[in-house]
Amino acid sequence: MTVSEIVNKLNLKVFNKNADLSPEVKDGFAGDLLSHVMGKSDEGQVWITVQTHKNVLAVASLNDLSAVILIDGQTPDKNMLEAAEEEGIPILGSNKSAFEIGGMLYEILRK
Predict the structure, then answer these.
(1) What is the mean pLDDT of residues 32-58?
(2) pTM of full prediction above 0.85
(3) How far apart are CA 37 and CA 16, in angstroms?
(4) For residue 43, how many C-alpha atoms fall within 13 Å in the half-sphere facing its CB?
(5) Local confidence band at 78 (pLDDT 50, 70, 90 cut-offs)
(6) Which residue has the higher pLDDT, 13 or 87?
(7) Per-residue CA distances from 6 to 33, 39, 80, 102, 105 (Å)
(8) Interhelix angle for 78-87 vs 55-62, to 10°?
(9) Close Cβ partners of 53 (under 8 Å, ≥ 6 residues apart)
(10) Quick one: how far is CA 99 from the chain centroid?
(11) Could you report the per-residue pLDDT of 17-38, keeping only the tens digit for each?
(12) Distance from C-alpha of 101 to C-alpha of 46, rounded to nearest angstrom
């Protein structure tokens, strides 16, 4: 399933409008501790987080994550959006909680 399909199925907002939504999504990862995400996430995952600063993009790029989903109505700060454009990583958003988005993502990826 692609990032674009995830956006449509979960009704997510795309914050960086020029983002490439074609990358494949293999799985999801939820967490807010950057060192934990660096050590445990894998290529092709979508990262669910409440963090909105540019260091998130450094971690997402390092681990070749497909996209970042900001939850609870969080919006990216200016530096995060600039880093997303540079790294080519989509920043997505939802008003739902990590629990809700994680559950929905799990369901659509396991079908």
Answers:
(1) 97
(2) yes
(3) 22
(4) 1
(5) very high
(6) 13
(7) 24, 24, 21, 12, 8
(8) 20
(9) 77, 79, 80
(10) 14
(11) 889 999 999 999 999 999 999 9
(12) 11
Four-residue CA torsion sign, 9, 13, 18, 20: negative
CA–CA gap between residue 99 and residue 31 (Å, rounded): 11
At which residue do the structure tokens 């501790």 appear? Answer: 33
The two beta strands, 91-93 and 13-14, are antiparallel
CB atoms within 10 A of CB 95: 12
| Among 41, 46, 48, residue whose Cα is nearest residue 71 | 48
